[in-house]
Amino acid sequence: MTAYDANNIFAKILRGELPCYKVYEDEHVFAFLDIMPRVPGHTLVIPKVAARNILDIKPDDYAHVARGAHRIAAAAMKAFEADGITVQQFNEPAGGQVVFHLHMHVMPRHDGVAMLPPASRKEDDKVLREHAAKLTAALKAG
Ligand code: AMP
Question: Which residue numbers does the motif Histidine triad motif cover (predicted)?
Fold first, then answer.
């Protein structure tokens, strides 16, 4: 497997070198909106440790990401009045991975509404700002 590249986009976001719509951070994980959301509220949860994907991350670090996704899922249900949640996590190009810092997708779903294909279009900044604010508020409300 290819080695972790510290210059991947999400590593730059973690270091604050690139902007993002942050929604959550703790000691172990960082979460921000996908700028090409497949559904409104599409969020990415990443570990703070350098890990390419499930194949090189330590199990306990993976568990931290799952805990983060669990927390985001509960908040997204409320923030987006969702009917369900899709969680996805891709590994290596063959597994559908495009950005090589491990991330879990957390996507609020509504009955009868299909997801857009990946990377269909960049969402408007205003919409992303509003969605980040809604999700952040729901996370703070617990
Ligand atoms: P994948 O590696 O296939 O799990 O997907 C990478 C995801 O990252 C896609 O859903 C992209 O829309 C998303 N993405 C790419 N660049 C950025 C960025 N700068 N900020 C937020 N999301 C991004």
Answer: 101-105
Residues with C-beta less than 6 Å from any ligand 1 atom: 9, 20, 34-36, 44, 90, 96-99, 103, 118-119
Q: What is the CATH number of domain 9-141?
A: 3.30.428.10
- Report yes or no on whether pTM surpasses 0.85: yes
pLDDT tens-digit series, residues 102-134: 999 999 999 999 999 999 999 999 999 999 999
**Contact (CB, 8 A) for 80 and 11:** no
Cα-to-centroid distance, 44 and ligand 1 (Å): 8
Domain positions in the chain are 9-141
103 part of the active site: yes
Torsion angle defined by CA atoms of residues 105, 82, 117 and 64, in that order, rounded to the nearest 10 degrees: 0
